[in-house]
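I would love for you to help me understand the pair of lines that follows before we discuss the fold together.
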Amino acid sequence: MPYVEGLNTYSQYLFTIISFEKFHDQNEIEKLKEFLSSKNIDWIPLVYTKKPPIISTIWDIIKLKKLLNKILKTQKIDLIHCRSYITSLVALSFKRQYHIPFIFDMRGFWADERVDGKLWNKNKFLFNKIYNYFKKKEKEFLQHADYTISLTENGKKEIESWKLPNQSPIKVIPCCTDENLFQTKNISHKREELGIQKDDFILSYVGSIGTWYMLDEMLDFFKVLNEKKANAKFLFITKDNPNLVFFKAEEKGISKDKIIIQPSPRELMPSYIGVSDFSIFFILPAFSKKASSPTKMGEIMNLGIPVICNSGVGDVDDIMKKCMPELLVKDFNKKEYNRIVDLIFGEYKPNNEKIINTSHQYYSLEQGVKRYKEVYNEVLGV
């Protein structure tokens, strides 16, 4: 939505957003509709169908096609901008039928993410068929879209190595950070509220737990850190069920009083992240993650907080090399964890200004909107 808001300030664009939503709070829907309407943005929320698998997705595709056909009867559509693969199935058919240009905003190698995340088992006939179907469609999207958006340079290089004939141009636009929210002046002191003592050392983790995020390995790291810093605490800023964290921590012999779980509304995120001395995220470095851009990285860095993270994910290596290369974890083992811990409790002094400047260079929402505008203008010929 921040991208659409940013692009909407340019008078030549008029947006209709169609989205599939999991929530059913009518008050929330009406408030958001009203807000978008005040900015002259139409929003048509459709209900996301979850079950049964496969059939529910086909049904959502049918709903989207019917809605687009209905819109076409009353207004002209100049461009369809699709996030990810399912909606691109519809956009591709509309391009072929009505010659409406479309942007394939791929958000990552989706079919490979389903396999790497163990959501699709390729050893099973049906999932293997579905995987191969979407890999075939992926190539069609890349060839027939008027523009492709990749979240990372790494993902773009991977696609270009496939040497597809008539491949659409690709622009890299990472997941951007709302710099109006994630800035140091928006940090209010939350240590007392969280039960954090003045001398406590805080390692934080921000966001969802599970699938891609390597909770076991992050807890292993914290255990090494806690052995050398007795007053260390691990703060999880997440809306996920805390029981999984406590259960895993107990398994590893980490005391419950060392773990703090804090859900946060978006507007308070800077304040909770702001209590951190360092933040950490480990992401499974699978093939599909070449195209991933962790939003949390920009949000944390924008607050000047140093990040401990692993290599092999999107453009993370290149970003880390610009401002804190020493904190890039090369292996998930005790030796490497000790190296990082000895570093942060030794001579290492984070350059907070450099961390913030690197975040601005890479994750700027303003730059992201500008790049989307360039793509829109090129496709629309304006």
Summary: The mean pLDDT is 94. The chain is about 45% helix and 15% strand. The CA atoms of residues 30 and 252 lie 46 Å apart. The longest helix spans residues 55-74.
